[in-house]
Amino acid sequence: MKYSKDEIIAACNTMCKNTLMETLDIEFTEVTEDSITARMPVTPKVHQPDGVLHGGASVALAESVGSAAAMVFNRGEKAQIRGIEIAANHVKGVREGFVYAKATAEHKGRTTQLWQIRITNSANELVSLVKLTILILRK
C-alpha cells in the first residue's frame, strides 16, 4: 500500500460525505493488504416494514465497500470505478446493531475485477454473501 491504513480509511470516509453512504451511515473501519471493511448501523432507517434489515440496504453497503476496495487496490492509477453486476444472497435477518461488510478480491484484472463481499452481524454470523463485478475505466 502506498498510504498508511489510517490515511486510506480517512480518505474512504471523507468520500462518503453528501452521498448515499453518508445517508446510510456507512463507515469504513479497516483495511488490510487484500481487503477493506465498513460497517453500517441497523436502525429503522434501513429496515423493511417488518423491522428487519432491508436487502437493498445490504446491497448498497456491499457495492460501496467493493467499489472502494477496487479504487484502493487499483495500484494508484487514475480510473473511474463502476459496478456493472451485483448478486446477493441474504441468509440471516438483522434487527439492530451493526452489520460489517468485508470486500476481498477474487479477480483483479486491468479492466474488470470480481469482488466477494461478506456481510456479517456483530456475532460474526453471515448475513449476506455478495458478488460484485467492477469495470475499470482508465482516464
Automatic annotation (TrEMBL):
One of its GO terms (molecular function) is 1,4-dihydroxy-2-naphthoyl-CoA thioesterase activity. This is 1,4-dihydroxy-2-naphthoyl-CoA hydrolase. It comes from Constantimarinum furrinae. One of its GO terms (cellular component) is cytosol. The keyword Secreted does not apply. Belongs to the thioesterase PaaI family. Keywords: Hydrolase. Residues 51-126 form the Thioesterase domain. Pfam families: 4HBT (PF03061). Gene3D superfamilies: Hotdog Thioesterase. InterPro entries: HotDog_dom_sf, PAAI_dom, Thioestr_dom.
